[in-house]
Amino acid sequence: MSISPALVWFRSDLRLQDNPALTHALERGGPVVPVYIDEEDEHDEWREGAASRWWRHHALVSLEQALQERGSRLIVARGEPDRVLSRLIRETQAGAVYWNRRYEPQAIARDTAIKKALTESGIEVASFNAALLHEPHEIRNKQSGPFQVFSPYWRHCLTLPVALPVKLRAGGLPAPANWPRSLRVEELELLPKIRWDTGLETAWTPGEEAGQRRLREFVRRAMDTYDERRNFPALDGTSRLSPWLRHGELSPRQIWAAVKNASRGAGVFPPSRGASVFLNEIGWREFAYHLLYHFPHTTTQPLRTEFARFPWRDDPGGRLLQAWRRGRTGYPIVDAGLRQLWETGWMHNRVRMVAASFLVKHLRLPWQDGARWFWDTLVDADLASNTLGWQWTTGSGADAAPYFRVFAPVLQGRKFDPDGEYVRRWIPELGRLPTKFIHAPWEAPQEELKRSNVTLGETYPLPIVDHAEAREEALAAYQSLKKG
Length: 484
Description:
The protein contains 20 helices and five strands. It is mainly α. The chain is globular, with a radius of gyration of 24 Å. The model has no long low-confidence stretch (mean pLDDT 95).
């Protein structure tokens, strides 16, 4: 008696290795039908942004090629997942549907409904953890509730075993007798119609193989000095693995295993302080999902309810927000970061903090505006991490930065970009300024500006707010919350 086909529904897990849903389908026996659905949900306020869609296109093409090399195909469809899966079950006579879990609020509700409907119709359904070291519902504090502070959360996690990555067996994937109809990836129209993506093409190579290559390079070259170099945006001192993690071409278990393998020679895990600090960043990603799962409203609302009455500034016509988005604030370290983001779909983490702090504390514009911009422009736009980062910066979330921490852009630039290399890379119109003035062009004498071909207010903007005044106004705004 032949075994019916199994559908494997790919979502944010666009890889073959360490893919529990795919592995389970193979262990079941019978044909395997890989499926990707471009979801049409007009009620989903967090549909992928333009930069993420660009990455998704190339990740799907890479996955499609990897499946073809194993004698299989990727069935590409568009529509509401429940209807698409029902159609594919009819066309393939599938008896099972497997997928790896997602944790966004809307995805949880939709997946629960799909699982219930398919099970009631006699289809075997199973979902798996492929995105996290530890699932949010597994981690509880001593009061059996969710953690809201990172340090005790991560200390607890470090006492738990981490599962090894699941290796896909060698050889081909069993194919069905007849393949169902499929769109081409190009028909999803994930790429921009106006070619603004050349910078992304230069900066990135999506795909599982490229992600594995980057992981190996980082562990070999940069991991042990990560703690020393990660704050300097002009250096290649960070892992830059976040886009592959976001789209599931890499898993956190694979990263954990790579660090552990590097520990064998050192005889201790983690093998260095740099490795320990790096794994802490993986921990922050885990913590972000923990918070999103337990506090799903925080994607748009502050976790700390008093921040619902924060006195945000009026911005008629969006002038200040537009200046921030375009990298035209007059503060070079902030502008360099926003221009790097627009050009490459990524921003160095230290500069992300400075730029985010500038929006919510110097400009006093709502953190949700920044979160939306990052969501649309980051190739690694992740709802959990994006939400945690913006709420942390604002002071409105779990384990938040204290309200009185207002990053001084000039000091941040001088400390972490001491030679001005990062600013010169992304703001070439300031490239000839002496390092002494690169982070505060308005302090340069007029003759120096002229010599450097800089005309403030024309070739480069004057600061749109005064740092000292903006800081005092921000502190007053935060103090007003305490008065109730």
